[in-house]
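quick q for whoever's on today - can somebody do inverse folding on this one?? i tried earlier but teh output was garbage lol. tokens:
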């Protein structure tokens, strides 16, 4: 990866430091006879999902978090998934439950989200349950240890990257591109709670570059390869690229044209090696937090 004038926001190194912090918390829990445990539901043989689950298992093992994988055939009935989630909800040894998405195509979007929402909010370490997303909007405490609820993992990782590079975000103009419940909406909420001034853009936004040119912070989560070009942004911008796509030549890219922005903006996260490692570290944080909260239930 060629270095331009922009500072690279190295998610791999920041995530490594965060995992060490979490490892110390896990050791303290084990001193009180609690071993944090994550259960993952994986459906079908979608190669990227299988890879992501292996990354999560590897990170958990390094930190000292136990995992168990419930791998179902692609043709599994939705009632079987409901039953598995219900059993895990009742298992006191399980502190966090994650439904690896996407589910196979024969599941509708509504069915997929119904499985996610079947998870008890106190075990929803992915931070995607509507109850958690609502609580986080009004919860006090730091994003990594809110008084109630869990912050969605990717936005939580993005926030950590921003705070490592910028520090305080108060008064800055942040543009979030994408309005999904996985990234866009919770990211906008987090930035608002950090006292940034937030513009939420999406696929129907007119004159996108007009908004981007005034941004101090850009969170690119539109799901469109190389959507954002150098001409769309200013030199002051700090860019966090959430997108990840495989091009026809086999190379990975994000939602921004890295080669162009790398020679213009103030700082940028690479793809890969930016947001991805932070998402996994944030998941580990939430599993540890769930186990810590179990001490007081």
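ok took a stab at it. sequence:
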């Amino acid at each position: 990866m060629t270095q331009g004038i922009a500072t690279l926001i190295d998610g791999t190194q920041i995530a490594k430091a965060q995992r060490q912090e979490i490892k110390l918390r896990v050791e303290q829990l084990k001193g009180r006879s609690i071993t944090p445990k994550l259960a993952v539901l994986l459906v079908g043989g979608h190669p990227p999902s299988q890879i992501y689950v292996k990354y999560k298992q590897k990170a958990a093992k390094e930190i000292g978090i136990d995992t168990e994988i419930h791998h179902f055939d692609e043709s599994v009935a939705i009632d079987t998934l409901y039953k598995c989630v219900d059993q895990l909800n009742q298992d006191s040894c399980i502190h966090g439950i994650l439904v690896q998405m996407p589910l196979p195509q024969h599941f509708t979007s509504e069915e997929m989200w119904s499985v996610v929402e079947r998870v008890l909010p106190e075990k929803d370490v992915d931070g995607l349950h509507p109850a958690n997303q609502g609580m986080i909007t009004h919860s006090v405490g730091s994003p990594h240890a809110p008084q109630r609820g869990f912050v969605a993992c990717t936005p939580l990782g993005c926030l950590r990257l921003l705070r490592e590079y910028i520090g305080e975000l108060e008064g800055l103009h942040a543009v979030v591109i994408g309005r999904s419940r996985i990234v866009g909406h919770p990211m906008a909420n987090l930035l608002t709670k950090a006292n940034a001034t937030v513009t939420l853009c999406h696929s129907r936004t007119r004159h996108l570059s007009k908004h981007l040119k005034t941004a101090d912070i850009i969170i690119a989560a539109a799901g469109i390869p190389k959507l954002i070009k150098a001409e769309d942004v200013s030199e002051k911008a700090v860019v966090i690229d959430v997108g990840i796509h495989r091009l026809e030549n086999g190379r990975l890219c994000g939602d921004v044209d890295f080669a162009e922005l790398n020679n213009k903006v103030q700082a940028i996260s690479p793809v890969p090696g930016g947001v991805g490692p932070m998402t996994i570290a944030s998941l580990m944080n939430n599993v540890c937090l769930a186990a810590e909260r179990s001490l007081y239930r």
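fwiw The CA atoms of residues 209 and 232 lie 5 Å apart. also The chain has a mean pLDDT of 95. so keep that in mind when u check it
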